[in-house]
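Why predict the complex rather than its parts? Because the way molecules touch one another can change local conformation, and only a joint prediction can capture that. The input here totals 292 residues.
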Amino acid sequence: MANITEIAKLVLERTKEGRLAWEATADENSYLATLGNQSVRISRSSLPGSVYYVFSVLNKDGREIETLSTTPSNIWINSVLELGSATPLGTINDFLPMIFQLALRRAMDVDKELEELAKILSAR
Amino acid sequence: MLEWLRENWVDLLSFILTLVGLGIAFVQVKKARTAAEAASEAAKATQEALSKSLTIGDLMKAIALLEKVKIHHRADKWEVAIEWYQPIRAALADARAKYPGLQQEQIRQINSGIAQIGIMGNEVEQSLRSGRLPPANVSGIAERLNSIQSMLESLVSDLQMTQSKSRG
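Output of the joint prediction:
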């Protein structure tokens, strides 16, 4: 029987492969990918001085049916992640932030935006 | 041969008549079956057109409710707007359930709309409870509402197009 940790790992793999369509949501620290009848959501929340990440599975009615979260960490995860690297997946404290970063990049089309900006800057 | 015919003509005639009778019966059964199949196909097509119309109706209801929510948001009536999130999700769930001919991608889009509205509802609810209104991400909420509305409008338009094609 599949558990949410395995699901999260698969979501990370499929996201790296560009096979999941992530969308922005009304919560600017939350991204959503819908696959058939279920959706998955990755969110970043903050506590004073630390951040934590929550991965949830939503059913077809949009209700959260299972969640997984990292422990609050004071490490600013952007600076320690190497997205797309071949390093094996570690604990959920490692891969949930990676899902968040990748989901953000896909949903907000970050690569395209940066490319356009680079073109503008180069032309100046 | 003539001798045999003279003695057995009754049997032979009866045999020929039986063959003719069987032929007629076969043709009639075939006609009846074709008519029954045609009637069944027509009933199926009518049922499909009806369920598609119901789904289109539910999607249009959801679009109208989204429009209503947008008006309440613009007027800063968040506590009124929040009452409409659940009916939108219910209309979308009805739309999904009524027409079994929806394609996978169309189902995915409806499910995404349901989930997005749910997240939006939570955001507004939390802001309402903590007394911090309007919610922090007002522009994000408006953007999501518009994007869900566009998606539903294009879904309705696709369904209407396939419906008019099947009529034609």
